[in-house]
Amino acid sequence: MPRNKKKNSRGGQHGHVQPFSDEDASIETLSHCSSFSDVTSVADEGGEANEDAAQEDFQYKLKGFIDSTVDKSAKTRQGALDGLKTAMATRILYEFISERRMTITDSIERCLKKGKGDEQRAAASLACLLCIQLGSGIESEEVFKTLKPIFKTILADGSANIQARQAVATSLGLCTLVAEDDILDVHATMECFENLFTRSYARADGTCPSLNPQTSALHTNALLSWALLLTICTTNQIRDILRKHLPKLPRLLESEDVNMRIAAGETIALLFELARDMDAEFDFEGWDELCDKLNALATDCNKHRAKTDKRKQRSVFRDVLKAVEEGDFQTETIRFGTERMTIDSWVRKRTYDAFREFVGSGMNYHLQGNEFIRDVFELGPPMLVDSATMKAMKISRFERHLHNSAAFKARTKARSKFRDKRVDVGEF
User: Fold this and answer.
1) I need a labelling partner for 139 at 20 to 30 A (CA). Which of 102, 109, 321, 382 fits?
2) Is the dihedral of CA 126, 131, 133, 134 positive or negative?
3) DSSP string, 244-288
4) Residue 36: enclosing H or E segment and its boundaries?
C-alpha cells in the first residue's frame, strides 16, 4: 500500500487460536476476542490445558491443509485451499502464516498455473487473504512480487477460464492496495483494469456492446478494483483520470447488467468526491446530462427489468445522485465488540466493501484484532478486552430471542399502518 506504508504493520497478534467452524465464524459472539486478550478468558471452557490442546489441534489441521495443496487430486487441493481460506478469514494467524508464507505462496502459484477454474479461483482468493494476514510490509511485498505476474497473465488471457479471471480481477486490486510499494506500479495495474472495463462502454450511437453475463461480470470486477485503487492515487493521477475517464464512465450506466450500472454509479460518486476534495468548486461539463441519467436510474420503472434489480438499483442511485448533486453521503455505522466505526465517505465505503468481500462474516473480528485493517481505517491498536468485560457483554440465546421477537412485533405493527386495507364489497 503505497501511502502511509509501515514496514512493521502486520495482520495482528497471534495469540491462542482455536479450531474453526461455521459457528466460530459467526460474529454474533465475542469469543474471538480471546485471541488477543488474556488467556483466562477461556477458563470457563476447560481451562488453559484445553486451550493449548485446541491450539495444537487447530495448527495440526492447518498444516494438513498446507500439505494437501500439492496433492495429486484436484478435489483434495480444492478442499485444502477452501480450508485455509476459512481459517484466514475468521482468525488472526500472523505468526503461524509468517513462518510458512513462502510455502503457501508456492502452493498458490502452482494452483494458479496448473489448476482449473474453481481451483484457480480459490487460489486467487487465498492469495488476497494471505496478504491481509501479513499486512502492509516486506513479507506481503515478497508474496505479491511472486504472484503479480501470474495474476496479470491470467487477467489478460482471453482463453483462460472466465471465472478464474473474475477472481483474479478482484484479488489483484486488493493485493495491490495492501502490498504494492510503488505508486507507478499501482498505475500500471490500473491500466490493466482499464483495458477490460472500457470494453463495456456504450458506443457513440448509444448502443451497448453485446456481452455475455460472465464477461460483463469480469468487467464489473475490473471496474471495482480500479475504483479501489483510485483511493490511493496521487493528486496528479486523480486529475489525469478525471480528465480521461469521467466524461466516458457515464456510458457504463447504459449497460444491461445491473451490477455494472451500480458499480459505474458508485465509481462516478467516488470520483466526484475525490475531485471536490482537491477543489471544492469542481465543475463537470456534462453535469446536467449526468444528473438526468442518474435520476432516471433512481426512479427506473422499466417493466422488462426484474423487480429485485430495480429495487437494488433505485436504492443505490438515490445515494449516487445526492453525491453528485450535493456532495452528500449516507453515513453508516459499523459496530464490532465494544467499538464503532463510521463509514462516512465513498472512499471509506469502497475500501470497506473490498475487505469484506474476502473476509466475509469475519470482518468484524478483523476490525477488532487485525492491526493492518485497523490501521487502514484509523482505529488505533487493538483494544484488550478482559474476560469479565467480555462475559458481561454477552447475552443469552433466550434473551436474544426475546429481543428479536419484540423487534419483529414492533416492525410488523409499524408496517401494517402503511399496507392497503382491503375490504370485501358486496354486490348489489
Assistant:
1) 382
2) positive
3) HHTTTGGGGGG-S-HHHHHHHHHHHHHHHHHHHHH-TT---TTHH
4) none
The Cα–Cα gap between 201 and 247 comes to 11
- The C-alpha angle with vertex 33 and arms to 335 and 143, in degrees rounded to 5, equals 90
| Cα(313)–Cα(419) distance, integer angstroms | 23
Parallel/antiparallel/unpaired status of strands 332-336 and 339-343: antiparallel
Whole-number Å distance between alpha carbons of 311 and 77 = 40
DSSP character at residue 383 = P
Q: What angle do CA 255, 329, 234 make, to 5 degrees?
A: 80
Core vs surface per residue 319-330: b (16+ CB within 10 A) or e: bbbbbbeeeebe
pTM as predicted? 0.80
Q: What is the pLDDT along the chain (428 residues), one digit of tens a residue?
A: 554 444 444 444 443 333 344 444 433 333 333 343 444 344 444 556 787 788 888 989 999 999 999 999 999 999 999 999 999 999 999 999 999 999 999 999 999 999 998 999 999 999 999 999 999 999 999 999 999 999 999 999 999 999 999 999 999 999 999 999 899 999 999 999 999 999 998 877 777 888 999 999 999 999 999 999 999 999 999 999 999 999 999 999 989 899 999 999 999 999 999 999 999 989 888 899 999 999 999 887 666 667 777 788 888 999 999 999 999 998 999 999 889 999 999 999 999 999 999 999 899 999 999 999 999 999 999 886 555 554 554 556 666 677 777 777 777 776 665 554 444 444 43
Q: How far apart are CA 275 and CA 158, in angstroms?
A: 34
Please, are residues 26 and 90 in contact by the beta-carbon 8 Å criterion?
A: no
DSSP state for residue 382 in the 8-state scheme: P
Residue 39 DSSP symbol: G
- Could you give the dihedral angle defined by the CA atoms of residues 46, 48, 54 and 58, in that order, rounded to the nearest 10 degrees? 150
Q: What CA–CA distance (Å, rounded) separates 391 from 44?
A: 10
- 375 in Cβ contact with 369 (< 8 Å): no
SS3 state of residue 212: coil
Q: Dump the DSSP string for 164-209.
A: HHHHHHHHHHHHHHHH---HHHHHHHHHHHHHHHGGGSPPTTSPPP
Grid coordinates representing 66 are 498446507
